[in-house]
Amino acid sequence: MVAFVIRRLLQSVLVMLAVALIAFTMFRFIGDPVNSMLPENATAEDRQTLRENLGLDQPVTVQFTRFVSGVAKGEFGISYRNKRPVAEMIAERLPATLELVLAAAVFALLLGVPIGIYTALHPKGVLSNILNIGSLIGISVPTFVTGILLILIFSVWLNWLPSFGRGETVQIGWWSTGFLTVSGLKSLILPAIMLGLFQVTLIMRLVRAEMMEVLRSDFVRFAKARGLTNRAVNFGHALGNTLMPVITIVGLQLGSMIAFAIITETVFQWPGMGLLFIQAVSFADIPVMSAYLVLVALVFVAINMIVDLLYFAIDPRLSVRA
Amino acid sequence: MALEVFPQSRIAAILKSDIFYRFRTSYVTVAAAIVTLCIVMAALLAPWIAPHDPFDVSTLSLWDSELPPVWVEGGDPRFLLGTDNQGRDVLSAILYGSRISLAVGFVSVALAMVIGIVVGLVSGYFGGMVDAFFMRIADVMLSFPTILVALLVSGIARGALPREMHDSAALIVLVFAITVTTWVQYARTVRSSTMVERGREYVFAAQLVGRRPLAILFRHILPNVMGPVLVIATINLAMAILIEATLSFLGVGMPPTNPSLGTLIRVGNEYLFSGIWWVVIFPSLTLVALVLAVNLLGDWLRDALNPKLR
Amino acid sequence: MTAQSKTSPLLSVRDLSICFDTRHGPLRAVDGITFDLAPGEILGMVGESGAGKSLTGTAITGLLERPGRIDRGEIRFEGQRIDNLPAEAMRRLRGRKIGAIFQDPLTSLNPLMTVGQQLIQTIRTHMNLSREAARRRAIEFLGEVGIPAPDARIDQYPHQFSGGMRQRVVIALALCAEPSLVIADEPTTALDVSIQAQILDLLKRMCREHGAAVILVTHDMGVIAETADRVAVMYSGRVVEIGPVEKVVRAPHHPYTKGLMQSIPRIGSNAERLTQIDGAMPRLTALPTGCAFHPRCPKAFDACRSTKPVAVPVEGGAVACHLYQGEPV
């Protein structure tokens, strides 16, 4: 167990170093940081001072070491566009994105798992067919189209729910939450549905496929042959074994939901990291882009580790072997 | 989507029988094929069949702006699907927009396929350092969502280009970003198929006869690994169109002066609250129909070519 | 069949047919088989894979899944028809009256539940026992099937048991609600040869002690010869010969059974080489007319190619072959 965790940690550190290298390369070699940071009319002297301040006159390896240690301390440099520390900008935006992703993930699980189980247990049912076709359409509809439709129906035509922003937020330390106000929660509904809907179809298809596979397995047949009730077979024996791989995928999906939040945040003008990132891309604001990249990679690596460790907690086969 | 490795030599036989049996017997697939064909034809023939030229400013008139579709009260028979705020015909804009969306889709799929096949063949056949190098890259890329990689690549490409070139080079940047993002899947699949084929007798025989590795790769192995590649290509066409639309929607793709379907949706979205829904809904529907139809074709192709699922 | 007709049979299968509905029309996988099983008796069912022996077992447990279905005949258990029972009534019968053991002990147990949980669940489904009483019964059964230190091992997971031990657990699971019939489908095929005999002995002893009859499905004639009282030989979905084991082994009637017996190596036999039956069993999609065995049969004549033989009684059993039609041996 300990050996496994250490190996996993080392692997994660390596991935993070690779990502840091990409981020550094972006920062150092794409465009000229000095030109991007100084006004057009800066003197040659100003340039030289900045160059020295940034350490650009030193060997590349030294620069990379400085970059990595900076990143480790949470320093990502100054935004070209806003002239503000990137770390500060991201810290402001982080809560909005994480709350959105959390709400969407809960929504997706609450809807996707039961639907998946239902369609697996009644594969020939009319409702199952409708749900299956729905999921196929769901996978093909771009999320931004879903978002636009949601806004058109629930904001423009019905005028029930707000279509942009987070509503009122409450500040708890440095964290700003929208969970505690009515307008914050109302604002969360549509973006969470938009971000979660694609995951619903994904989770549902995954649960269905896994469950149908498990239902065909020998131990389920043997459980049936022992006369156990359908309930005991389906939920006691099959479901547990179905959820093992589902946990992995859903865990990994959390990471990609942070990435997909870019689109949701654009549609709903949600003040999160994604919106910050997309603005950075369109203005080629490299420090913000590289900071976002490092951060998202960190989240991915962390989730990967947690998922692996969760397996130990759930699967008795692993806890003994290790 | 994991694709199983299977003996490709069967493809010819399958083409003759089951594949078309399945095609004929699946109404959904036939419908998908028809929809795809219609959109592709309409896009190809846009300059001839579009009722207006949306880019010819001289024909635009503000008198015609924000007209609803014909079947809605106030509609004008000249503009079947209504007009936008500048008096541009929505139908014509969609026809020209699909042209760009499809062009980006086809070109990037073709490029990604060629790169992926070459890398996959070389990695799978020679193994060793080359293989390890490419597969580590693939691992890293596949562990991030496609859209994020595409955004990053296009962001980097934009960073490397001077600002004034962003619009004119948009098409190339898009194709580049999508290609870089998607070649990995082909490489992975071709590599694993190649590693299987490499152990087959016919390859051994070709080696004994003294054929050069390149000849063996392209003349002997390649035809046998094309099946899964075709499936991926079809599914990736849908994905490429989707990525392009998403990037354009996010404002880092095609500029409004030369709009793709995604750009049209982005522009239309800004007028959502003034109630002119048709400007955003019709491009969206076209995009959904196209992506759904191509996805269905890909699903059918995968099922038909994969004997394991039968 | 005469030997068993004195007592009323535990299980009686009459003209049972199972077919699969496919794109190309229905395929008949089991074609009109008939046999009886007395209480406590062990009946071996032997045949090549695809002969329909496992399907017959599955049909008796009521676990046949679409596209497979029973399209003719009936199955009676303790005098009651069970082939058309409602699902819920059939479920109550399974485990309680009819137990089943499958081929692979490695995959027959739920990996995420302890063996105790699985035993207790099964016991409590069929018997009105408290959790403690069910647990005591589970420990008792684990002891009976030869698991050492059952009170400690009951809380372990399947992966902590070896293959042979797991098959012992499976036997305990199949018998823990005291069924009067156990269908054992290739119970030892997946095990090491060294363990096979132990498991067969255990199965035999457990069933004798708990008064359960057994249908032992296997392709291994050796297993049948050592374990079963009677044997039914299946070929292409039909029972070609049925009778007491020693009779069928020593003096087989049907040419297929004869071929089968000659292909078993025997100590003390002076044959220089084993004979084998030429060809392979026909596929369901291409069944020959008449007797399905005729293309491989050394004694085939005209009648074999045109009409299906019906079963005729021969000393203590029955055989379906034109060689014996109309002339009781």
From TrEMBL, chain A:
Pfam families: BPD_transp_1, BPD_transp_1_N. It is found in: Cell membrane. Residues 94-311 form the ABC transmembrane type-1 domain. The chain crosses the membrane at residues 12-31, 100-121, 133-158, 188-207, 246-270, 290-314. Its main location: membrane. SUPFAM superfamilies: MetI-like. GO terms for biological process: transmembrane transport. InterPro entries: BPD_transp_1_N, MetI-like, MetI-like_sf. It comes from the Bacteria. Keywords: Cell membrane, Membrane, Transmembrane, Transmembrane helix, Transport. It is a multi-pass membrane protein. One of its GO terms (cellular component) is plasma membrane. Belongs to the binding-protein-dependent transport system permease family. This is Dipeptide transport system permease protein DppB. The gene is dppB_5.
Automatic annotation (TrEMBL), chain B:
It is a multi-pass membrane protein. Its main location: membrane. PROSITE patterns: ABC_TM1 (PS50928). The keyword Membrane applies. GO terms for cellular component: plasma membrane. Keywords: Cell membrane, Membrane, Transmembrane, Transmembrane helix, Transport. Residues 98-298 form the ABC transmembrane type-1 domain. It is found in: Cell membrane. InterPro entries: BP-dependent_transpt_permease (IPR050366), MetI-like (IPR000515), MetI-like_sf (IPR035906), OppC_N (IPR025966). Pfam families: BPD_transp_1, OppC_N. Belongs to the binding-protein-dependent transport system permease family. One of its GO terms (biological process) is transmembrane transport. The chain crosses the membrane at residues 26-50, 100-126, 133-157, 169-186, 229-255, 275-298. This is Dipeptide transport system permease protein DppC. It comes from Roseovarius halotolerans.
From TrEMBL, chain C:
Residues 13-261 form the ABC transporter domain. Keywords: ATP-binding, Cell membrane, Membrane, Nucleotide-binding, Transport. It is a peripheral membrane protein. The keyword Cell inner membrane does not apply. It is found in: Cell inner membrane. GO terms for molecular function: ATP binding; ATP hydrolysis activity. SMART domains: AAA. GO terms for cellular component: plasma membrane. It comes from the Bacteria. Pfam families: ABC_tran, oligo_HPY. GO terms for biological process: peptide transport; transmembrane transport. Its main location: membrane. Belongs to the ABC transporter superfamily. This is Oligopeptide transport ATP-binding protein OppD. It comes from Roseovarius halotolerans. The gene is oppD_5.
